[in-house]
Amino acid sequence: GANSEITEEILVAHEFDAKKLKLAGYTAKQLKEVSFDSMELRTAGFTPLQLRVAGFTPSEMRYAGYPVKEMVDAGFSNRRLMLGGYSASEMRDALDLSLEQLTEAGFQVAHLRSLGFMPVELRGAGFSASDLKPFFTPGGKRIYYMILFSSHFFI
């Protein structure tokens, strides 16, 4: 059962089927050790928490299709999810994150601009004027210099 190693005989007996092995009491960790991937384990009905305990990364779990909300419920931080490849828009939409929370997760200006945040909002969230410079057209230089030399912003 669940306390023993998964041998080739056990794999054959369960037809190399992750769901059958799960029903027989084997854990996600045991299945990972015999090369089942995150997608196979999700299909078999394992939860994000079970995969996390088994040692799967957020990136591997994203590949399997686990949604952001379930990943947070499994105990992953916003930062780990960002590093695992979840997008700023996925995270904002699923978790209703603020600009500050997205910034703390590690998203950069390009990601945040693509969500529609304005330069003045990004400046207020701690990005420097030079971080924002690539997002101004030549005609926008006046605005860039106003942001550069302004110390207060009303958002």
Describe the structure.
There is one protein chain. This protein is mainly alpha-helical and 155 residues long. It is 57% helix and 0% strand. The protein contains 14 helices and no strands. The longest helix has 9 residues, at 141-149. The mean pLDDT is 86.
Layout of strands and helices, then pairs:
Elements: H1 8-13, H2 18-23, H3 28-33, H4 38-43, H5 48-54, H6 58-63, H7 68-73, H8 78-83, H9 88-95, H10 99-105, H11 109-114, H12 119-124, H13 129-132, H14 141-149
Gist?
The protein is mainly α and 155 residues long. The chain has helices at 8-13, 18-23, 28-33, 38-43, 48-54, 58-63, 68-73, 78-83, 88-95, 99-105, 109-114, 119-124, 129-132, 141-149. The chain has 14 helices and no strands.
Radius of gyration equals: 22 Å
**What is the strand content?**
under 5%
Overall pLDDT score: 86
| Principal-axis shape | rod-shaped
H/E topology pattern = HHHHHHHHHHHHHH
Question: Count of DSSP E strands?
Answer: 0
What percent of the residues sit in helical stretches (DSSP H or I)?
55-70%
Q: What's the helix count? A: 14
Q: pLDDT below 50 for ≥5 consecutive residues: which ranges?
A: none
Labels describing this entry:
155 residues, 14 helices, mainly alpha
